Amino acid sequence: MTRISCDECSRADVLRAVAGRGLPAIEPGMPTPAGTGLTRRNFVARSLGLALSVYGVGRLNLFEEGIAAAATGPQSPILVTVFLQGGADALSMLYPEGDPLYRTFRSQLAVSGGTPFAEDPRLSWNPALSPFAQLHGEGKVTVMPAIGYDHPDQSHFTSRHFWEVGATNASLLSGWMGRYLDAVGTLDNPLQGLSLTGSLQPTLATARVPVAAIDGPDQYGFWVPGVWGEVETRMLDAIGALGRVPTHDPALSSATSVTAHADRLRRQLKPFASSGTVVPAVPYPTGDSFPKQLQGLAAMIAAGLPLRCVALEGAGQYDTHAGQATALTPALTTTAASLFAFQRDLEARGVADRVLTLVWTEFGRRAKENGGGTDHGAAGAAFLIGTRAAGTQVGEFPGLSTGLDADGNVRATSDFRGVYASLLEQWLDFDASRVIPGVAKFSRPHLVK
Amino acid sequence: MGVPVYQGQFDVLHAERLLWRAGFGPRPGEAEALAKLGLARAVHSLLHPGNERLVGPAPHDAKGHPLAPADAWGHDHCWWLDRMVRTSRPLVERMTLVWHDWFATSNSGVGDQKLMLHQNDLFRRHGLGSFEQLLVDVTRDPAMLVWLNGTQNTKDAPNENYAREMMELFTLGADRGAYTERDVREQARALTGFTNRWKPGKGVYDFHFDSTRHDTGTKRVFHKAGRFDWHGACKLCLEQPQHASFFVRKLWSYFIPTPPGGATETALERLYRNGYEVRPVVQAILQHPALYDGPRMVKPPIVHLAGLLRRLDAGITTTDWAWIGQLSGQQLFYPPNVAGWDDSRWLDTATYRGRWIGVQRILDERKLDPGHPPAHQPGDASGVLDKALAFWKKPPLTAGTHAALLQFAQTAIADAGKAQWKRQQYPILVENALRQLIAVSPDMQTS
Predict the structure, then answer these.
(1) How far is the C-alpha of A366 from the C-alpha of A375, rounded, in Å?
(2) A264 pairs with which residues across the strands?
(3) Is B345 on the interface with A (CB under 8 A)?
(4) What is the ipTM metric for this complex?
(5) Record: contact B429-A258, CB cut-off 8 A
(6) How confident is the model over A412-442, as pLDDT tens digits?
(7) What DSSP string describes A8-59?
(8) Which long-range contacts (CB under 8 A, 24 or more apart) does B272-275 make?
(9) Residues A145, A122: Cα–Cα separation, whole Å
(10) How far apart are CA A152 and CA A365, in angstroms?
(11) Greater confidence, B113 or A9?
């Protein structure tokens, strides 16, 4: 085992991120991390590595206070959301091969070569989504082929915000999962709401309880050059002390809170404090940060960490105004293959029944292409994945002849707020009216078996 | 009625806050010098800084080679960070950052650092000039034309990307009823006509307007009809009645965390409408009482970092700053999307750790070696804390933070007990730790 330091974790992180963008690795100019060679840190890492190999990842929760204080039980359900940023083109994901207008509207961009969607003979799976097709065949995917809301907003940021806050309300600040966490969460568990994208996802924004953002569970160490031993322990404790200094200033208060949450989170993630602690049970795609984040997530779930709601972003970006043919395929391929590996990983670890994953995007795209791309549209596609997903489609594809609105965009046949309400009620066993404003107006689809 | 002006005492603490909000914090002695000028002359000096001088050593990578901002990954970030650290015109550089966030363009979509630097220069030149000129130049800027598909927008296949964001994010704002979906489509038609060439190895080049690609027909925008072109599209946005309030509120939000309030806003709008000049509006904001009497702001990660380097008179000696920028939530030239960074959410547990690593990287080259204690090394907690504060040029800390740091130092030094080697070494370990804790304290992350 090599020396563990934040330098190395961060470097691994950036190499991944860079690789994901297809840019050259940034070796030139990167210094060797300070202090290579055998150090106390190395020794500790070795000891912990040994302990891990003895107990195995599944027993990590014997180690640490954070887990001992877990506010969720080992069987509590976990909801994972994966955001496809930019407005993914539903008409390319489940493409309407059987709709006579499809090739008229998409003379350059029409997809072909996919397998039929068993629940609707008009639709076919994009070949890049064949992992979804396979899971669908196993009854583990619920498809929402045209999901959205009335009076669709074609701004990325407004529509995304609606989905994030769980209401068509531009001024609501807390995320829909954040409000759920405010109701059921605790003040000492940042992991209950976890962003794995390196920054906080707004769906998880809370008003009361802490939530966390990390790059990966094995990347949350803190150290300082020229500090070790007892002094280092005291220094780490001092982070917590800085997080307890009272203040009335809002900005100071937010900086103080995040300091306290960082302190708490570091303690919660101690089982993963050395490298080699995230060992996937199945192979994942490489060359992108998304599959890496899912690997970390599966390991955390298997280790019994107290997660409730998790937010990630899928690989690639989906705002395909131009160059759609070349941009969309790799993004969908990596996203679907990664989620497939994640599902298999959870199954292999015996925790698949605890996890449902919702894949969503802020809107679909215009039915008519603009040349090489597509502009902003209305209804998009969403997918719910997991062994407990009901596996029957919600809403249906409305067709291109009568299913378009006045702007030439696909009309929604299901409402995202109804889906959220069903997830709250059927999966999280929680009163949806406490989270989704005006929930009585929305029909609740059957989502969980 | 004019915009209210701060009338209270303008001392070193006020000058320090002004330098953080309008720049990247003080270099040693700068806050004191600025305070002596008084508020009006202090603000004037920031707005009229004269020719740029770069103070301190030239930047280089860890091997001592000069940076290659147009070519090497991450060197663009380090190149601009260096300018923030060494510039004698902090407000010009800060405005450049404001426009980078306002007209957020990411090299993840542009894929050409030369074009990004070209755009950056545009933001610097117009930083305090005319917003009208800025909007016109951004609209035909090659990086922007690539980023929002301006050169793929033709009369036969209009592409709405730039038209929408120009109104939603750059000039009018969403959810205010300022424009309709029809306006988006009509503006897209007005904006048709730009094109560029592309060659393997060379990439995109030769950006220009080609009238054969332009839709010369009549468009109807904001209830006005005309054969508008891209210049017309810009003008329509500026003259739309809701533009001035959008502009003023957005610009204000970069400097002051609380909203301006009705009277101030009206006065700022009047100031702005008189020629779309940026400088007088910034001047009024920087003199406003809310900047000095009001609550703190979270420093953007790059401002926090540049400010720490300025305090130490430190230069750029590594390109680690690029990935550290990524971890702390702000890699220059890579905003997360066209809306820019979310300035209301700089801090979370991940970006906190990114800031921690940034400070750690600064301190790595400067750590005290406990094996070789300096002469006159204090052994008591309060002496060690004073020394660590002096390292950072005595930043003003709240009493609560000071007490927490002192408590840490006392406890950690007491751990040494009677062991001679610990009594010698622990004060030095504690000083290293205090330097880190001071720089990441809530106080230092806000101004």
Answers:
(1) 5
(2) none
(3) yes
(4) 0.96
(5) no
(6) 999 999 999 999 999 999 999 999 999 999 9
(7) HHHHHHHHHHHHHHTPPP--TTPPPPSS-SS-HHHHHHHHHHHHHHHH-GGG
(8) B272/B131, B272/B244, B272/B247, B272/B248, B273/B244, B275/B130
(9) 12
(10) 12
(11) B113
- Return the bridge partners of A125, or none: A94
Cβ-defined contact of B432 to A225 (cutoff 8 Å): yes
Phi, psi of B297, rounded to the nearest 5 degrees? -125, 150
Per the CB < 8 A criterion, the answer to whether A325 and A95 are in contact is: no
Distance (Å) from the C-alpha of residue B1 to the closest C-alpha of chain A? 30
For an interface test with A, the pick among B165, B323, B353 (most A C-beta atoms closer than 10 Å) comes out as B353
State which residue of chain A sits closest to B159, comparing Cα positions. A370
A83 vs A225: CA distance, rounded Å: 38
Task: List b or e across B84-120, with b for residues whose CB sees 16 or more CB atoms inside 10 angstroms.
Answer: bbbbebbbbbbbbbbbbbbbbbbbbbbbbbbbbbebb
Task: Please state the rounded mean pLDDT for residues B257-268.
Answer: 96
> What count of other Cβ atoms lies within 10 Å of the Cβ of residue A424?
26
State how far Cα B300 lies from the chain centre: 7
User: Percentage of chain B surpassing pLDDT 70?
Assistant: 100
Longest dimension (CA), chain B: 89
Rounded CA separation A128/A131 (Å): 8
**CB-based contact A125:A94 (threshold 8 Å):** yes
- Residue A31: pLDDT over 50: no
Mean pLDDT, residues B299-305: 98
- Please give, rounded to a whole number of angstroms, the shortest distance from the CA of B370 to a CA of chain A: 8
| Burial class of residue B250 in the structure, from the number of CB atoms within 10 Å of its CB (0-12 exposed, 13-18 middle, 19+ buried) | middle
The span from the CA of B263 to the CA of B267, in Å, is 6
Task: Please tell me whether residue B62 adopts helix, strand or coil conformation.
Answer: coil
Q: Are B132 and B238 in contact (CB under 8 A)?
A: yes
- Tokens of residue B418, six digits: 């009677």
B176: tokens are 């205010």
Q: Are B404 and A241 a contacting pair, CB within 8 Å?
A: yes
Rounded CA-CA distance B337/A123 in Å is: 32
Tokens of A204: 């998880």
Q: What is the DSSP letter of B404?
A: H
Amino acid A226 reads: G
The more confidently predicted of residues A371 and A28 is: A371
Structure tokens at B31: 């806050």
Query: Both tokens of residue A245?
Result: 């200094």
Token code pair at residue A1: 């085992």
